[in-house]
Amino acid sequence: MSQVVFAAKKRTNAGSAASRQMRRSGRVPAVIYGHSGEAIAIDLDAAEFVAGIKGISESTIVKVAIDGQARDAFVKDTQRNILDGQILHVDFYEVEGNTVLRARVPLLIQGNPIGVRDGGVLETPLRDIEVECLPKDLPERIKVDISNLRTNQSIHARDLVLGDGVRLLSGADRVVALVKFAKEEVSAPATEEEATPAPGAAAAPVAGAAPGGSGKE
After folding, report:
1. What's phi and psi for 152, nearest 5 deg?
2. Helical H runs in 74-205?
3. How many CA atoms within 13 Å lie on the side-chain side of 63?
4. Whole-Å CA distances, 69 to 9, 51, 77
5. 3-class SS at 147?
6. pTM of the model
């Protein structure tokens, strides 16, 4: 997959009014944050950004070309209008090629486990893991093949194939996927109506009571 490139411009106008005007003209206000704490206010073409972010994850490194000067960065946050889905603001986080970074990488679960075909139930409690590596070694996603997973078997974070130069930061014993035995159906307890005898129905005899009498001699 080729690297996504966003053409951007530095912006000097700040404030809500300027941002609204920008969105009406088809642009999106954004900020790119650097390691030193530097924050550069920019704006992007809205249509280009929407098309570019399809299929990328939080760990995908994109290129932001600010007035022709390219910077590698993550798309860290995208704010949208909850009513119409319009993108309101974007935060980028710049990465440096020779600086080790930490990032969360999504897991891509693949396959139909043997245990599920045998009647087991698949659980995938972990959606992503945290890793540490250089930007060039950072995977966009990590594939997890669960095809050979049998009932009562599991895959842990330590079992994942991360690639050269990538170090796992998430707990090694965290469960990525497991197949459990299907729970047996339990009979529902009797309701109060079922437990109460209908009017006129004979009550069960009490142990020790004389049949047909009051118990008095």
Report:
1. 70, 25
2. 114-117, 192-195
3. 11
4. 10, 21, 22
5. coil
6. 0.68
Closest by CA position to 73, among listed 50, 54, 53:
53
- Please give the structure tokens belonging to residue 21: 């005007």
What whole-number distance in Å separates Cα of residue 116 and Cα of residue 24? Answer: 51
Which tokens sit at 113?
Answer: 């486990």
pLDDT string in tens for the chain (217-residue length) = 578 999 999 988 777 888 888 899 999 999 999 877 789 999 999 999 999 998 788 889 999 999 888 999 999 899 998 988 889 999 999 998 888 999 999 999 999 999 999 999 999 999 999 999 999 899 989 999 999 999 999 999 999 999 889 999 999 999 999 999 876 544 555 555 555 555 554 444 444 444 444 444 4
